[in-house]
Amino acid sequence: MPLNRLRALTLLSECNGDDIWSLDHCRRRGIPETWIEELADCYESGFENDHQTIYVGETAVNQYHGIRDVDLAIKLGEFLNVDVETLRGTTASRSRLVLAIRQAIEEG
Is the pLDDT of residue 106 over 80? Predict the structure, then answer.
């Protein structure tokens, strides 16, 4: 299924800035394979505090191979002609960046 504006907006609405999507999930959701190849990485948990720990369901894992939804949101924002670089410089967290990308699209 090709990526179009509606699909991009739907995918962006599923991003919160804090999740890592599995590659299978990305493929099922219609993320272009070239984006998957570009954005996929292996992430390691930090166990000093809960916010650094990666969970699959309720189970903490040491590593997880996937795509951070903030990176996907950035790519979707670029696809939808948002000046993401400017937004990156004005947001303090990943979740705020995702929110700023959404707001930029809503404001046109």
Answer: yes
